[in-house]
Amino acid sequence: MNMTYGVIGTGAIGGYYGGKLAKSGKEVHFLFHRDYEYVKEHGLQVDSCDGSFHIDQVNAYQTTKDMPQCDVVLVGLKTTNNHLLPELLTPLLHPQTIVVLIQNGIGVEKDVQQMFPHLQLVAGLAFICSAKTEPGRVNHQCYGNINLGNYSCRDEERLNQIIADFTCAGIQVHEVEYHEARWKKAVWNMPFNGMTVALNTQTDKLLGIASTRQLIREQMLEVIEAAQYCGVKNLDASFADKMIHNTDVMVPYSPSMKLDYDLHRPMEIYYLYTRPLQEAREAGFRMSKLEMLEAELNFLEQNQTKP
Amino acid sequence: MNMTYGVIGTGAIGGYYGGKLAKSGKEVHFLFHRDYEYVKEHGLQVDSCDGSFHIDQVNAYQTTKDMPQCDVVLVGLKTTNNHLLPELLTPLLHPQTIVVLIQNGIGVEKDVQQMFPHLQLVAGLAFICSAKTEPGRVNHQCYGNINLGNYSCRDEERLNQIIADFTCAGIQVHEVEYHEARWKKAVWNMPFNGMTVALNTQTDKLLGIASTRQLIREQMLEVIEAAQYCGVKNLDASFADKMIHNTDVMVPYSPSMKLDYDLHRPMEIYYLYTRPLQEAREAGFRMSKLEMLEAELNFLEQNQTKP
Q: Are residues A153 and A226 in the same domain?
C-alpha cells in the first residue's frame, strides 16, 4: 500500500519525521507558517547527527485548504495551538485517514477525538533532541526514535504500513501500549520541563545538586504512582532511576517548555500538567509536588515579560 | 528590679527593640559589626511609623569581650550566624541571664540550649516590618509587636520584668505558649519567605494570581498539619485564611529571605525549612510542597551569583 502523508506543524518534530519520509521517497505534503516562502524557493534542510540531507522540491502549503487529502497526517503542532485543529485538519481527512499526534502530555487524544468522533488517532511519542534553528532548517542533534500508541485506529493494516514506512525512512519506531506510553513519557516530561523553567536551568544542573536531584526523583515517583492509579501496569519506581540515569548521560538539555519560555512563547502547561494532575485526582491520587510546579508555571506565564 | 540589656546583632530587629528600650531609659549595650565607628560618632537613628527618635550616646561595642554581663540579652542575629553564639554570648552571661532569641524558624532554642545547657531561653516572635537602610539607621515601617514564648526560663519574676520593660518602652508584647507561637509564625514564614525567592516576587503578586494564592494556602495547611502532628493545639485551617487575609491588607512585602537573596547573603534555609521539615517527618508527617520549596531554595543558593 502506497500511503500519502501530510505534516501539520513543520517544526523541529514535523520537519524531521516528515523530512525523513520524503527523503525515503514517500509523498509528503507540508504545511508551513512563516517558512513557506523560504522553503518554496530553497527547499528543506535537515542537519542530522545521523546524516544531513536536503529536500529540493518540497510539497509546501500555506493553508491546509490547498492540501490534498492524506492517508496519514503527522501533527507536530504545539498543543497550545490545538484549538486550531478543527479548521486545520478537516481538509486533509478522508474516511480512512490516520492522524498521529506527535505532541506532549496527557489527554490530547481524548480532546481531539471529541472534535472528530470517528477519526482514527494514534499517539506519537518522540524521543528526539531537535530544534528549528532557521527558516527551512531543522537541527537534529541526537536520538530520534518514535513510539506509536494506538488510541482509536481500527485499521491494523494501515497502522503496520506506517511502521513499515517509518522503518524504511530510517526512523526507529515501535508500537507500544497507549496509556503506558503516554504516562511513561510524562515521568520524564513533568519534572524536567517545568523545573528547568522554574529554576532557569538545564537538566544536568538539576541532577548535579543533591536536593534537586532528589526532588526530581520524587516528582517522577509521583507520576509513576499516578499512572498506577490510572490503571497503567508495568511501571514501578525502577523506571525513575532509569530515567535519571538516561538523563545523566545526556548532554545538558533544555526541554521544549524551557525553550518556549525563553522565547516568550506560551508554555504547554495544560497538557503537560493540568490534565495529568486532573486525571490522577479523578483516579484518587494527588501529585502534590507537581501541583506546586503547575502553580509556579502559571505564575511565571502570567508574569512573563512580553518580547 | 532594674535590669540591664544587651543586644547582639543590631540590625533591623535588634536596633529597633534595643533602641526603644534605650530610649525609654533602660541601660542597653549594643554589639555592632560594620556600623561601630559610625554609631560611636553619630549615634543611632530609628525612623519609625510610631514616631522617629535618635539616641545620641550609644553604649556601642565591637566585640562582646568588652561588654558587661547583662540581665537580658536580645539576639537579633540571622540564624545563619548562630555558630558564632558560643563565642559571642559567653562574656554577657551571668547565672540569671535570660536570652531572648528574636530569630526565624523552628529549632533555634533547642540548638542554643545544647550550646548552653543551663541558659534561660525565651523565643521572641517579632511581627514587624523594618530594615536597616544605612549605617546606624533603622527604618521601622509598620507593626512592631513581639510575642515572647518561654522555652527554658525558670525565673518568672524576671520574665515579667522584661514584659514590663518592653511595655514601658512602647512595645506591644504578649507572653504566648512557646511551641504554638513558633509554629504559628512558621505558617506565614514558610510559604512567603521561600516563594518570593523562588518566583522572584512579592507577597501581593503571589496572592494576586489564583494558582499561587491556592498554593500558598495549601503550603500553610501543610504547616498547620505538621504543627498538629508536633502536638500544637489551637491551630486549624482557619488560621491559614486569617494569615492570607492579613497579607492581603499589608503593603506589598519582601520577606527577609527575599532581601537576603537579593543582597547575595546566605538564606535562613536551615531553620526556616530543613528543621521544621525534619521535626514534622519525625512526628510522622511530610510537608510535601514545602520539601519541594526547600529543594528549590537549596538549588538557588548553590547557584547564586556572588556579588
A: no
